[in-house]
């Protein structure tokens, strides 16, 4: 299929991830996106950084977008945050969140690992970028992109 239309999550699993994103974003102005690729032929952090801009995550008003990137077949993943959030979270935040996810992935629980990563990111976003009330809009669509 040349990589087009490849979707590794069932509709129910995809719905679970989307609900996790919505729940994490409920009390924050931050934005969380998930990208799932079949393969990653390079360093996953490099790929995630490139995708971050390609997907438009740098366009949030407060520079508080986060991308959770997973390459399913090669068991690689990365988390990338924009400068606004990277500036304020604890220095070990990205690595500790990856460790939480990795603990699920090691047990073959990919979906649960992604959801746990989303929840961890949501906690930090809520802390540093609380929801701004009625004028706070969802700047990026809550969807999973596939590659």
Instruction: Characterize the overall form.
Output: globular
Low-confidence stretches: none
Cα gyration radius (Å): 14 Å
Number of domains: 1
Order of helices and strands: HEHEEHHHE
Helix content: 40-55%
Distance between the termini: 12 Å
What is the percentage of strand-forming residues?
15-25%
* Tally of alpha and pi helices: 5
Number of strands: 4
Q: Care to describe what's here?
A:
The chain is built from five helices and four strands. With 147 residues, it is of the alpha/beta class. α1 (11-25) runs parallel beside α5 and α4 packs antiparallel against α5 (110-128). Strands 3-2-1-4 form a four-stranded mixed β-sheet, sandwiched between helices. The protein is 44% helix and 16% strand. It has a single domain (11-146), classed as Diaminopimelate Epimerase, Chain A, domain 1, CATH 3.10.310.50.
Give keywords.
four-stranded mixed beta sheet; alpha/beta; Diaminopimelate Epimerase, Chain A, domain 1; 147 residues; 5 helices
Could you write a compact summary of the structure shown?
With 147 residues, the chain is of the alpha/beta class.
Which helices and strands appear, and what pairs or packs with what?
Blueprint: H1 11-25, E1 31-37, H2 44-54, E2 65-71, E3 76-81, H3 83-88, H4 93-105, H5 110-128, E4 144-146
Parallel strand pairs: 1-2, 1-4
Antiparallel strand pairs: 2-3
């Amino acid at each position: 299929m040349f990589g087009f239309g490849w979707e590794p999550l069932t509709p129910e699993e995809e719905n679970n991830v989307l609900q996790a994103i919505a729940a994490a974003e409920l009390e924050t102005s931050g934005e969380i996106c998930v990208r799932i690729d079949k393969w990653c032929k390079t360093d996953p952090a490099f790929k995630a950084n490139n995708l971050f801009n390609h997907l438009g995550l740098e366009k949030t008003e407060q520079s508080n977008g986060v991308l959770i990137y997973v390459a399913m077949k090669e068991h690689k993943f990365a988390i990338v945050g924009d400068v606004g959030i990277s500036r304020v979270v604890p220095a070990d935040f990205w690595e500790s969140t990856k460790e939480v996810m990795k603990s699920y992935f090691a047990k073959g629980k990919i979906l649960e690992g992604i959801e746990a990563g989303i929840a961890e990111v949501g906690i930090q976003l809520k802390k540093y970028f609380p929801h701004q009330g009625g004028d706070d809009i969802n700047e990026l669509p809550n969807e999973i992109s596939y590659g």
